[in-house]
Amino acid sequence: MFVMESWPDATTAPGPRIAASADSRILADIMKPVADIIVWSRKVPDTWPDLIGQTTTGSPALTLSGTVGDITRTLRHQLSVPENLRFLKEDIEQTLSLTAALSGAQNLCLTWQPVTTPLTPVLSGTSPFCVFCLYGGGELSVSYNDAQQHPTVLTPDPHALTFCCPRLHAPLHLHIQKDQTQSCFALIIEVMETKGASLY
Q1: This protein's superkingdom (predicted)?
Q2: Which is nearest to 121 in space by CA: 108, 105, 109?
Q3: What are the pLDDT tens digits along the chain (200 aa)?
């Protein structure tokens, strides 16, 4: 398995430790006290970028909280996507289930956001575990709060799943820039902090 890693020197350049790979086995690192951010640069079907990027049908923003079952049932009724983008619903549901399985959490919060202008989603700051993904044409930048500065530490590829583990001790900041000629959407799933939610 080929893995790209970024290990900042804590004495001179504090920041998150990052591991990224296109191999799904990278997800096993989430269960280890090694990296703070795990990026699964998964390979999606070749048709995804064009189908998502060229859609002109609007999809309203949606925020849902509850168990995986609660969110999934509501998602199927409230998330409106064109027929040719039904795979998005399936991917969101699978990512939701994966997040719950990896975190051991019962309650989560899912946010689905069409990106029409530069977007800076606000993370809760209290979630012990979260995942985010950018679908379509755009760029996601992740910065780390360090002494009132926000240096960019990561720009995951579109459709990559980025997992942020509970070892992070300072908040992350997301910034999404839409491609001028394509559509894009942001997915954020956060574990709602509960006594039963633990990775270890």
Answers
A1: Bacteria
A2: 109
A3: 545 555 555 545 567 888 999 999 999 988 887 788 999 999 999 999 999 988 876 678 999 999 999 999 999 988 888 888 899 999 999 999 999 999 988 899 999 999 988 988 878 767 889 999 999 999 999 987 665 566 777 899 999 999 998 656 567 889 999 998 889 999 999 998 654 444 54
**Coil/strand/helix, residue 18:** strand
Q: Which of 138, 142, 141, 143 is nearest to 185 (CA)?
A: 138
Please report how the helices 68-78 and 86-103 are oriented relative to each other, as an axis angle in degrees rounded to 10. 170
Nearest C-alpha neighbor of 187 from the set 67, 75, 51, 24: 75
Extents of the domains making up the chain? 26-191
Domain 26-191 has CATH 2.50.20: no
Global pTM reads: 0.88
